């Protein structure tokens, strides 16, 4: 559906590209999760999809047609729900939806129907007379969601749709977004919360420094090959032991903590025997499966949010 190919972008007056060689696809019926720390390039990427930024290098197509052309002909085919609240605080929920349905260019009969469907979808019926500024954080996010679904687009882009919401609203929003994909729409979902991406995404792209570090199906990312062994040592691993362990997987040592991400097919028992027979004093040995969080840290060497 959406195909981003070798996209590059540099803001005028800056010395470094904000996006370099980004290639991704979003398919109907699927959720593409975009993960990246601050400054990774997520907003720059999303801004291209709201036509806020022009394509400098590479291409973006929708069903094979250049994005700019599709957007010009039918701007509501792609619905971008931004991080910020995108409604009028002084208007009620219903007034906001009526206003945005008119802006979508829907015919008046259709408008009434879509407003009602959007209220139902975001479960905002009982709040339709409430001024938007008086809604709780979770309800404000649901109003953003209701506005995004008004035009029934082919592609949704949600930029951090659960920031500042209570756990109940978060669960509701995640379920609602999964329902949109199940109805056959393509969805791009950006979040700093890896557990959310694990909960909703079919494919995941990990961005850092404007580049795609990893792009794969969630199941492949989390598959059996990503077994991890963690332990502590008193000193740096001797080079011979390091070399022997490297045959089992990727080694990362930070101070006393060592982490080995096993290659697919590497035998755990053989690795443990090797550690036992080595001169290294190993303690706190743990074995676990990689979570998206471990994978992210291993790839970027940093947390998703700057501390
Ligand atoms: N308007 C701008 N002018 C110049 N540089 C910019 C501009 N907007 C973003 N950048 C730079 O582009 C790079 C990517 O930023 P971007 O905002 O796309 O990242 P992000 O992943 O959305 O980060 P965050 O999670 O903090 O929103 C950063 O180095 C940033 O400083």
Automatic annotation (TrEMBL):
CDD domains associated with the record: ABC_DR_subfamily_A
Q: Which GO terms describe its molecular function?
A: ATP binding; ATP hydrolysis activity
Q: Give the ABC transporter domain ranges.
A: 2-234
Q: Which SMART domains match?
A: AAA
Question: PROSITE patterns given for it?
Answer: ABC_TRANSPORTER_2
Which Gene3D superfamilies does the protein's record reference?
P-loop containing nucleotide triphosphate hydrolases
What UniProt keywords are attached to this protein's entry? ATP-binding, Cell membrane, Membrane, Nucleotide-binding
What is the recorded name of this protein?
A: ABC transporter
């Amino acid at each position: 559906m959406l195909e981003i190919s070798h996209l590059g972008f540099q803001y005028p007056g800056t010395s470094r590209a904000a996006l370099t060689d980004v290639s991704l696809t979003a398919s109907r019926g699927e959720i593409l999760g975009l993960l990246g720390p601050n400054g990774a390039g997520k907003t720059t990427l999303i801004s291209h999809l709201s036509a806020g930024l022009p394509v400098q290098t590479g291409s973006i197509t929708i069903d094979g047609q250049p994005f700019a052309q599709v957007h010009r002909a039918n701007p509501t085919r792609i619905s971008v729900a931004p991080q910020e609240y995108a409604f009028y605080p002084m208007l009620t929920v219903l007034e906001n939806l009526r206003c945005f349905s008119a802006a979508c260019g829907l015919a008046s009969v259709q408008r009434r129907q879509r407003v009602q469907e959007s209220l139902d979808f975001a479960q905002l019926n009982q709040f339709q007379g409430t001024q938007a500024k008086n809604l709780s954080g979770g309800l404000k996010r649901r109003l953003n969601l209701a506005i995004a679904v008004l035009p029934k687009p082919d592609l949704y882009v949600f930029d951090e749709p659960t920031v500042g919401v209570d756990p109940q609203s978060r669960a509701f929003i995640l379920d609602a977004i999964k329902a949109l994909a199940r109805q056959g729409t393509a969805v791009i979902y950006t979040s700093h919360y890896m557990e959310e991406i694990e909960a909703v995404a079919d494919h995941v792209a990990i961005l850092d420094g404007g580049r795609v570090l990893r792009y794969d199906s969630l199941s492949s990312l989390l598959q059996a090959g990503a077994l991890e062994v963690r332990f502590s040592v008193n000193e740096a691993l001797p080079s011979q032991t390091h070399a022997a362990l490297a045959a089992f997987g990727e080694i990362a040592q930070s101070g006393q903590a060592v982490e080995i991400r096993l290659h697919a097919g590497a035998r755990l028992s053989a690795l443990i025997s090797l550690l036992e027979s080595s001169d290294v004093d190993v303690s706190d040995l743990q074995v676990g499966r990689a979570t998206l969080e471990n994978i992210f840290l291993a790839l970027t060497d940093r947390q998703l949010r700057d501390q």
